[in-house]
Fold these 3 entries.
Entry 1:
Amino acid sequence: MKLRFRRRRPDDLETLHPAYFALVMATGIVAIATDLHGVPWVPAVLFWLNAFFLVGLVAATGARILRYPGAFAADVRSHSRGVGFFTVVAAFGVFGNQLVLQMAAVELAIFFWIATAVLWLVVMYGVLAVLTIQPDKPGLADGLNGGWLVSVVATQSVAILTVLMLASGVCVGLAQPLMFMALVLWLGGGILYLWLMTLIFYRYTFVRMSPEDLAPPYWINMGAVAISTLTGAFLLEHSALSPVVMELMPFVKGLTLSCWAIGSLWIPLLVILGVWRYLIRGVPFTYDPLYWGAVFPQGMYSVCTYRLTKVLEVPFLMPLSEAFMIIAVAAWAAAFVGLVESRLRPTVRIQSSSSDTQ
């Protein structure tokens, strides 16, 4: 067994990965997790860091569109990279959640609520339409990855922020139709998860996968149902805003718990596959923006478990939420060190390795 580390050339403006907005997703959800558990000063530091990350990535993406429109258009048409644009939607949604939950800045959060909804419409239907009409399409092994499940995360982000805004007193007169919309998005996101997960599970079990194929975004297998759990918990918590949700409370409770159970059952397999990838097959740890797609699910699992303990009154799950909060902070710190190190020493080559065990 061996553990290796390798440095690679970081993205520049032309090659900036669309999924880099997962940095904002991960930082935001870890900030919320630490805030829920009463960790001092960390949530505030992460909030302001995240504001910087979001502004920087928006500016970099805008500059990329202007300077390298061909590269940007190629990403939109790519089955592997195009789905990375869903992280833009989720990033705006998570930051909007931070504004409401951490900063009580409801007025500013209204902008992010509207932006998240508009971005969801543009990316969901724009990217899927472009990929649908492509004449040449990759096979399942080449075009399908865990990043496709960020479409579920983006959908649930719109639903969560909608519920939070209504609970904060925004658009009181439209509470019932907007809660109904949030309910529909939650259910639609769940069905989308089932569609995509069927294909991903088929690829796992019936299509050959190399260690390199098991990239960090496969943690979204768990993260997509974790955020679905959180959406269901918020719908239950604020069910008084909608007679429809009130009437469906037993169904919503059962489906919310089902989402949490599915996410929990994914965790051991993802850990085993990670051990196989990095320790047994020796794939080196190399900083990649896609690693933020593995940090986000861990923070989301902590937050959704915390909310689940409240709405279902199961306090014995709280230590699990605390444990994953610690794991998420450690994962975020490791990814952040990789990000900083890759930018400070972008041209240096390799690494260090541990001893091999026969």
Note: The chain has one domain: 4-134+142-353.
Entry 2:
Amino acid sequence: MFSASDVKELREKTGAGMLDCKKALEATNGNLEEAVDWLRKKGISKAEKKEDRIAAEGLCTIVSNDSEAVILEVNSETDFVAKNDEFKNFVNELANIILNSPLKENEEVLSYQVNGETIQDKIVAITAKIGEKISFRRFVKVQKTSTEHFGSYLHMGGKIGALVIVDGANDEVAKDVAMHVAAMNPVCLSREQVPSDMLDREASVIKEQVMNEGKPADIAEKMVQGRLNKFYKEICLLEQPFIKENDLTVEAYVKKNNGTVISMTRFAVGEGIEKKQEDFAQEVMNQIK
């Protein structure tokens, strides 16, 4: 009745998922033009037109079980959609699918099938139904041992998400650390994890500053190291003053509670994405088109 090449051609014409294209061809006895119209009537082919739009809003969410946790980000074009129950349900569904599967990369997630439908197909369908671009951006999946605790925190309903693992201590301490991560945005866990290019750039700037101050070489070297230590305290989680007890570092706070921070992940929705500037009235108009 129709071939694989027909399915491929219909996908290219409409941007619809493979399963939807097969359904359309089956419903129209393999007639390509009628299949295009079938998809249009269903609203599925609209998704193609939204692929080049910018999706920089959306949600982070965190789910976990006894041994694993997932933090992920799914983007939408507007904050209106990010607050839509259908969008929220999809984000939570996707997080739980990843939690309960062996998926490790975004590409694996998009091609993963649930009830005969890939995640990519689901995204195409929800894009068409909601009316704006939906984009699965990223996720991190972590594991813990029996002595470790997950700490998670979602700020502003999911605009910022933080997930940490603490060995020892307890769930409350782990959550406190996650709240700190969300609020203070550390770049990395410890100074050993500071990216070399970031450290080199900062050291270069500091050296230039000290040289311009005309300090003797021996004093200049001490000043460089002192300012680098201050830099570490600003960007490294373990060295930051803990938000609830400023006289303690995060590391000292956790240690006081017989624990050690093992890892941290922080997502902020849309970070690094160049956002399109629209006024409120335009956003409303976009929703009713």
Note: The domain at 4-49 is CATH 1.10.8.10 (Helicase, Ruva Protein; domain 3).
Entry 3:
Amino acid sequence: MPKILLKKVPYEIDKRLRLYLKKYGREMKLPIMYADLLRYSEGISLYDKYGQDTLWISLLYSQDDLQHINLALKQIYAILRANGDMSVMQHLYVDRIDLCLYGNSKPFRIRVVNKINDNFDYFYIKNADASRIYGLELEHLLSPNRISYVVDENTLIEEHIAGIPGAEFFDNYLKVGRVENEIRLAKEFVKFNERCFVRLLGDMHSSNYVIEIMPDFEDIHYRIRAIDFDQQSYEARKSIYLPQYFKQNMPIIEVGLKHMTPTTVRQYQKEERAMIASRIRYQHTQVKDILNCMTKAKLSKPGSVAILRQELADHYGDDRFLECKKMGELVKASLDLVVERN
């Protein structure tokens, strides 16, 4: 079973990546920065509906700061959802600002509520680092999902990705027989596993992805979406990039073992790789631009790159991986292989 032993080292956003973010509209001036939200006066522990400590705290700010903070956060929400048009935000208010006490980025979670119907949404404010940016951008370009995020200096704003956290889905749906189509769920996990491995997104255990349940006209469809991109192309071992090897994912792996044969697994793997190849061809210029940045960036230690390139060369039976000196080069070699074989 793969296990990450050391805290990940953050890497700065270099000039090449900055130019990419500006070119594609991902960098813009924000009305408030991550550091501004650290000036809170008190924090109250948050508990879930089962009475368990969530390890998030709800923050209190002085009255002098609160008015400016609330307006700035509404402006950011308008940037994410309405291209900055504040006129559509007049019925919204900031209900809560939470801070996560665990994890590498110590994110803030902002809860925004519509005062007319009490509908709510979230977004996140985090410390930006290059690994997370590359992870978000590759997810946006190579997966079936689209992600809204913006960067200003070292502040990253991410939209909330809706869905049921993997661990919660296992406990409240899968283990109690509330999954209507286990075969489709198992198929989606195979495809998710393949997406992570092809672009080297690591640490996808059940707390780092959500599961969407989508009614189809005849049945139920499932979509698994990564929600944490901190471990993009960082760890040395191949198994870190394969969700199938995490013990937290055993409930869904057991479903796959029950319903699928090695032949059907290979079929779904080939289908997903063909879809990734199609997305690369369709967005060739942008994919080329992000990989040009990534192949020159430092995203991990040389020793980790050396171990992973050997494991990938052995896995694919392709010596091109042995020539790679950076994590971005390994990602590019992996994607080149996908396009060539599809």
Note: The chain has a mean pLDDT of 94.
